[in-house]
Amino acid sequence: MRFDQNKLLHLVLVAILIVVLLSQLIIISSSHEQVPFIEISSSYEIVPAQSEVIVSKEFFFKNTDISTNYRRGYYNYIYTAIPSNVEQVNVYNGANTLNFYEAETEPGYYKIEFDERVWYSDTYSFNIEYKKPVDEIVSDDLFLFYLYERGNNVDVTILYPEEYILYFPFDDISVEYRDHDKDSTSMSAIGIDEWNRNYLIEVHSSDLKRTETIEKVYSNNEDISIIVHYYEGEDEWAQHMIEYANTSLHLMEELTGTPYPNNYDINIYQSIRYETWGYGGLNKGSAGIYLLHSENEITLIHEIAHYWTRNEMYEHAWLDEGYAELYTYLVLKNIDQVKAEKKKINMFNTYYENKDIYSIDLDKWEIPENLDKDNFRETHYVYNKAFVTLYKKYGYKN
Predict the structure, then answer these.
(1) Domain count along the chain
(2) What is the per-residue pLDDT across 141-155, written as a single tens digit (0 to 9) for each?
(3) Does 289 share its domain with 346?
(4) Is the whole-model pTM more than 0.70?
(5) 3-state SS of the chain?
(6) Of 310, 330, 360, which residue is a domain's last?
């Protein structure tokens, strides 16, 4: 019997295509299940006198990508995040200096070239060292910096002078504080799986003081003074806040028809996150309003509004926060309509974008004692939902 050569060729081509497709499926599946595993052991040394951070990282790279076993076979480079404002960058493996350069296709990342091939299941280690200025200087005794880490398992040690205090507010990290030597203290953030975000850290002198004050008698009540306590060098911030406080108090009295309901002065403290419990601002009644050093007048208005909302003794926490947000919008609308409109739009958008994600009974919601990574999004959503609920209730015109 004569065999049709065209038919044979067709069958061979089909068979080849099936094999190729199956192999690609295996590779794709494997690449999703297994990726190179990266452990990082990092040290951040804080040098307050130079307002800089000295960073040292040791990388442990393991090729767990099974697809390289039969496709490409090895890795010989890696991309890693390095801040843009670093100095004296040094990348090495033992005595060998490694080539590195900024990745054109990956902004904020550097490509590190290995000096050997890392085959499937093999490991490779290398070091990166650099120094960088702190990310923000609030005063001579208070500054902030970011931890830049990208890895599967990361251990970070932060060294800082013993006369300084470090605030690390996140619950997803196991933190151990310990003495390093007689001149410095250290903390270690241990065992983070898939560290893929930047952590903002506050470092401040243990004798950090708000050494400056501005006082102004409230124009509607000469028995009440507004006093702003702020860090040295933050005069512009303080002056801005005291003017907004005076204006906001006046507008709150007009909106509510009720005079300022307390007999004590209003003290406003420029603060660190430890004092605000993770929030942007905190109204502590007669003890004063604590505003995070980075906050603006909108947060101040919200905290001033609480002098009225708490006087109402609302049954549910969401009403207290909801009315504070509503009053903030109405006060702001009388001062800066553009900012007020932007705030309203943002709050409505946040509510509608998240209303199917969070199922929260407002009447059962309680304000978290500390705002952190685990409860931030939900709390932010409740504030927005409370505002939208009250805004709709009173039917304000758009």
Answers:
(1) 3
(2) 888 888 888 888 888
(3) no
(4) no
(5) CCCCHHHHHHHHHHHHHHHHHHHHHHHHHHHHHCCCEEEEEEEEEEEHHHCEEEEEEEEEEECCCHHHHCCCCEEEEEEEECCCCCEEEEEEECCEECCEEECCCCCCEEEEEEEEEEECCCEEEEEEEEEEECCEEEECCEEEEEEECCEEEEEEEEEEECCEEEECCCCCCEEEEEEEECCEEEEEEEEEEEECCEEEEEEEECCCCCCEEEEEECCCCCCCEEEEEECCCCHHHHHHHHHHHHHHHHHHHHHHCCCCCCCCCEEEEEECHHHHCCCCEEECHHHCEEEECCCCHHHHHHHHHHHHHHHHCCCCHHHHHHHHHHHHHHHHHHHCHHHHHHHHHHHHHHHHHHCCCCCCCHHHCCCCCCCCCCCHHHHHHHHHHHHHHHHHHHCCCC
(6) 310
